[in-house]
Design a protein that fits this description.
Length: 406
């Protein structure tokens, strides 16, 4: 086996990851495929493109420190699909001609072993089956399997999403439009089992790379444990050995005593994401979000006592200038009370005023002006510092809701 460096010229590089195959003809373009052979991401000329399971393609680039994201139109998506096929065909030729190397880091590579070459041949064969037409047809398979997956916490982007319920049982927070398109509905165990098996079929071999299950939609855990237990059983049967995560809201979470949370933890629940949004009682009322910051702190106590990992979301900029001081000060106070620890997450989510939301109309009516960019940056910095001070062991991360692709 030989090892080479960039000084000897750049070969065609491959990475055979446990969950993906990455091909790079030269360092300016990198295409990643899932284990089923479908292109997943493209990095070309400083832009990143990502394909969703429905074969929508989203572009992303950073210009002067500002991230931009856009949906790629159908003809450009087709170009990306064709390009991915061409890169895979070029990899096949490079392999046959002995010009292909396995990446060993940013600037190092080595020859493939015979077993790696055989594995790559197998993977390239799977990739070759995904014509652009077949990729476009994934949309229909997706629509037959899922209702729209509206949002996920960033740590769950790589999870298998299973929709135990549709929508949100409250659906009246003024800022939230995620589930306005559907009434809250609960899936019965048999329908849920069919859904889980259809998801397994849709993901194919790529399911192996998804190491957790996210139970959607907005607040599936509002269901009683008697209703959740058979659904958890389905998850264990169809996607064994994966932890289960879900959103929780104060109004649903506080209905369960500690013993109920412990029971769910035993059934496989390992993380919950709580939309706290703000530590200000007044702002929560303005947002029409049920529960109080005190209730939220008590709920986090209970969740931690049950042995669950907790992610807490605070919004940055919500309530605009009018609520800014209360929002920051009272969120700092709540953060200081939360018993978060290593493995827990605090998400700071830049607030986006959704078109058509009640919040938008209400803010216009009440003269609630959005924060200027500098004030918003300052609020983010202050909340970040407060989160780090209050829970040094927990991870504090940005949660940009428009960057989500499933
Ligand atoms: S923020 Fe959460 S609780 Fe409020 S409407 Fe949206 S999903 Fe429901």
């Amino acid at each position: 086996m030989t090892t080479a460096t960039a000084s000897e010229g750049a070969p065609f590089l491959v990475s055979l990851g446990p969950g993906a195959t990455t091909l790079s003809r030269d360092r300016s373009e990198v295409v990643t495929f899932d284990l089923e052979g479908r292109p997943q991401t493209w990095v070309v000329g400083g832009r990143t493109y990502k394909r969703s399971l429905a074969s929508d393609v989203f572009g992303r680039r950073t210009v002067e420190g500002v991230r931009r994201r856009w949906r790629v139109d159908a003809s450009d998506a087709d170009t990306h699909f064709r390009h991915a096929g061409q890169v895979a065909a070029a990899a096949e030729r490079a392999l046959a001609e002995g010009r292909l190397r396995r990446a060993e880091g940013a600037h190092r590579w080595r020859e493939l072993s015979p077993s790696e070459a055989a594995e790559l041949t197998h993977r390239l064969r799977s990739i070759g089956r995904w014509t652009p037409e077949r990729l476009v047809a994934e949309r229909q398979r997706f629509l037959a399997t899922y209702q729209p997956v509206s949002i996920l916490p960033p740590d769950q982007y790589g999870a298998v999403v299973l929709q135990a319920t549709y929508g949100c049982s409250w659906n009246r927070c003024t800022f939230c439009t995620f589930y306005q398109d559907r009434p809250f509905q609960v899936r019965e165990p048999q329908a849920f089992a069919e859904h889980a098996r259809a998801v397994r079929e849709l993901l194919g071999a790529a399911a192996d790379a998804r190491d957790g299950v996210f139970l959607g939609d907005g607040n599936a855990l509002v269901l009683s444990n008697a209703r959740l237990a058979p659904l958890f059983e389905v998850v264990r049967e169809v996607f064994p050995e994966r932890g289960i995560a879900s959103f929780v809201d104060v109004f649903g979470g506080e209905r369960k005593p500690l013993s109920a949370w412990r029971e769910l933890a035993e059934l496989g629940l390992d993380r919950v994401t709580l939309g706290l949004e703000t530590g200000s009682r007044e702002l929560l009322a303005y947002l029409n979000k049920p529960g109080t910051p005190d209730d939220a702190a008590l709920l986090v106590d209970t969740l931690k006592a049950a042995g669950l990992a907790v992610s807490v979301i605070l919004m940055v900029g919500v309530g605009g200038e009018r609520f800014a001081d209360r929002h920051v000060e009272e969120s700092e106070a709540v953060l200081a009370r939360l018993p978060l620890a290593a493995g827990d997450l605090v998400y700071l989510s830049p607030f986006v005023v959704q078109p058509g939301s009640v919040y938008r109309a209400q803010a216009e009516r009440d003269g609630v002006r959005p924060l200027a960019p500098e004030a918003r940056d300052a609020q983010l910095a202050r909340l970040r510092a407060a989160a780090r001070r209050a829970v040094p062991a927990a991870t504090v991360a940005l949660y940009a809701i428009d960057e989500f692709v499933y």
